[in-house]
Amino acid sequence: MHMIGSAQRPLVIGTRGSKLALTQTQMVAADLEQRGLAVRIETFVTEGDTNRASLSSLGGVGVFAAALRVALLEGRCDLVVHSLKDLPTVEVPGLVVAAIPARVDPADVLVARDGLRLADLPAAARVGTGSPRRARQLAAARPDLSLVDIRGNVPTRIGRVRGLGTRAEQIGLDQDRAKEDLDAVVLARAGLRRLGVEDVATDDLSETILPAGGQGALALETVADGLAAEEGRILAQTLRIVDDEPTRLEVSAERALLRYLEAGCAAPLGVRGQLTWENNATELLAGVLELRARVVGDNGESVEVSGETTVLLGTDADQRDFALAAAEQLGVDLATELLANGAGEMANLQATKESGTTQS
Question: Is-above-0.70 flag for pTM?
């Protein structure tokens, strides 16, 4: 028997083939190698990579995760690196998100021609985004803009902004240069930072657009039985170290809200958890977890809710589970408040059915 991650049995990490997905996976692989594991990367093609229809028509961001999860279950890889916001909130039997590394700033940013900020864009400026969440929040702030539904990886989207075609090629535009037909696009800061091109951002939109649940975070998913087996012991120990507790608490609250509302990619819903740690008199690590959520309707009407809970983090599993339960309950509480304030009718959201199905 060889340990997973040994030279005789390298850890096989599955990923999509986009520039950002590969970059993120290479970052995770490098970290695991520094921790002593032997690693090999395997690339898989998902429906979201080959079908150019809008994400909402394909059923949400789950189209990026499905093929990778099948590869895990079939034993073609041992670990998958997802962008957490692309991962449906309902778990797949047999799989577990074993680690969520510390996330990058989850804010959305504007990438505009001539260094323009959102307030500087002229009326009728063409702004590209494929996200209903971004589109509705942006339209609420600037109803005079012309929003364009777009698809494609980060270099492709940057390449559509007037004057930025060359920059897109520099970071790996994997097709002929797109027509530079947009004044701006909206992207996640985390993706730009990981690709080393954060400087193309011209405005921070964190006060204008609440991000997607889990945005900026990575999810390291694997087969639960593999971690429990003797050959997975070192991998399990390593992933426990990689897992970042503050990030997991934040995204657990965000995803609990999404799961309760059955809200996937097509939902015009933004949510942001933020944890502030403090040392209290008992020397237990304590923190305040704040959560905000916003739903925007077709006509710019919106419902926004916020709340907070105190979490105590100890060293044993029971204390960890208690903190996670508090985070998830905060998400459920705010989801209930959204529904009570009419967000369900506004955005076609609903409480989770007993079956536990999702539209993600």
Answer: yes
